[in-house]
Amino acid sequence: MARDAHLPQSGAELRRLNELRRGDRGVVARVGVDDHEAHGVSAEELERRLLEMGFVEGARLAVLFEGLIRRDPMAVRVDDLRVALRRREAQAVVVALDDDSRSRGR
Amino acid sequence: MTDTLAPIQDRPAAPARAEPRVALVGNPNCGKTALFNALTGARQKVANYAGVTVERKEGQVSTPAGQRAHVLDLPGTYSLRARSPDEEVTRDVVMGKFRGEAAPDVIVAVADATNLRLALRLLLELKQVGRPVVLALNMYDIAQRQGLRIDLDRLSQELGMPVVTTVATRRRGLDDLLAQVDRLSVDGLRSDDQWHAPSAAELRAAHREAERIMKVCVRPPERPDTWTGRLDGVLLHPVWGTLILFAILFLMFQAVFTWARPVMELIDGGFKSAGELVNHTLPDGMLRSLLADGVIAGVGSILVFLPQILILFFFIILLEDFGYMARAAFLMDRMMGVAGLHGRAFIPLLSSFACAIPGIMATRVIDNKRDRITTILVAPLMTCSARIPVYTLIISAFIPPKVVWGVVNLQGLVMFGLYAAGIASALIVAAVVRRLFWRSAVEPFLMELPAYKAPDLRNVAQNVLMRGQIFLRRAGTVILSMMILIWFLSSVPGAPAGATGPAIDYSFAGMIGHAIEPILRPIGFNWQMGVALIPGMAAREVAVGALGTVYAVAGGEAATGTLASTLAGHWSLATALAFLAWYVFAPQCASTLAVVKRETNSWRWPVVMFCYMLAAAYLAAFVTYHAAAALGGG
Description:
heterodimer; A: mainly beta; SH3 type barrels; B: alpha/beta; Rossmann fold; 7-stranded mixed sheet
């Protein structure tokens, strides 16, 4: 499923995008809604919207900026696109962190 | 191609198929509208699609083959899987399924050459529709400057469609594009429509295909755009970015309120003189009154806001083209979210400080219908500029210009308080609406932050002028008819011979004012105020003139100083404050209600808006009046 260009490093630390901080980078490992929180749209629909904005397995991802209040929303770079999203939706994206982004004192 | 659809009324009478119909399709921010402007120049027509409130922009262009082509600028979209009314229109028109709209002969897919990956996925979908497609790689100059190499022949081969490069803002590549349109329009329909809404698995497959095409056709830029990242470092900074946003807003407001003033005074003066001219040349009677007080005063009351609206749209379009608007939505999303509003509601609400009508028209950028309606419902609570004359009059009459807390002018403080009350109530109402009408969770907030681009001034000017035209046509016709209706209520029947009071006393408005006096008494209003509220329905500031009329102040509106002292003699402080509180909420603008009807396509929302605002106004005035009276202001 992942593109051969950016295979996540084996054994990479997996984290949900909503837990990431500014400066964290990695590769998208999985996109899909598995929580039961209501998103205003169905789980399938949210997954498709995320896919349409470039959140697809294998895409390079970096957290660029965070909002003022509760660090929400967040601005991320997905491959060559910059996208803003709320942490609530970011839960549906699992990221395999790069080595240098791992466990930075959290 | 079978064309059994009913012809649309505003389509020019053209021999079928002789003049190719071209549809521009592309992602948001790909320069599609700039390309449309470059192709069609001033030969554009803006209307609404039949039955929906989506804007339909059509223009004409002559192709190299000497044909006249009709170009349709479709709303920007990321996929044909429509998520908003705008995107539905794009999908249905592209497939030739939109009622009353002929199917396009040629689709021009516009792509930002520097952001091809996103465009490729839309292109793969467009190909499935089976109509002739030509890809216009727009902003090609930026791609070249970045050292981005695109193998055009290979791309054309991979996609199975002709590819041309364009720079819309410099009018480059237009002839190549039109030559392709000529060629493709002869070919006609290529294959059957095989498009269906892609599943998540199909989207992943499309990603892989796009990635494959990228790899064989595009070499990454040697000098990638670093400006966007550097600018974002400041503009999206949680603290600095927010401060800069407020500084930009401050500048915008300064411009809207100070730059516009001389022109507004000129327009106002011009219409006053025209009214006087009519008053002097025509014999006294209904016709003179209709022309001077109804038509001329009505047109004047619309045109006087045009400078403010043009300046407002100038800033909005400039910031939009620059790529800043998405950043503003990002910075404000959380604050707006507290009230259950979407980050994108920020700009429409901001526009409403000038006038709720362009604000409500600007809610089209909000995809989700519920978010959009919530925004529409609270937009009129923002202190629009028509309230300013009313606020100024009452404040100058009742609030002493003394300095409190050492530096603050009390009159300014009250004015600020009225603005703050408007904003606070808008946030509260939005939160209540969300709980009351739709309890579902907030729509996802997913938004592209486009690369910054230097705005093209010619394109900005063209768009500002078009916005101005739309405002005049949409709002103008509504306001004018309302003004004439209100004039009718205020002048008919005329005063009997030997009448002592002002003529408005004897009119329908006077009757209504007297009739509603018992209802108004608990909030401290007298019947004169009731009478003034009726013409105030046309436009809020008209209430000032109407108060002048009912108190028979010589000189009317021109002599607000006299009017202020008259009011100070007739009203108690509690009444004046209640009147201010009333004006924060009151649905005192028939045109806004009419525009809401138009934008939501239903009577439900204007009725909801009218009722809740009226109730809030009454309650606020009631509380204010009694609180002020209890504190000794009675």
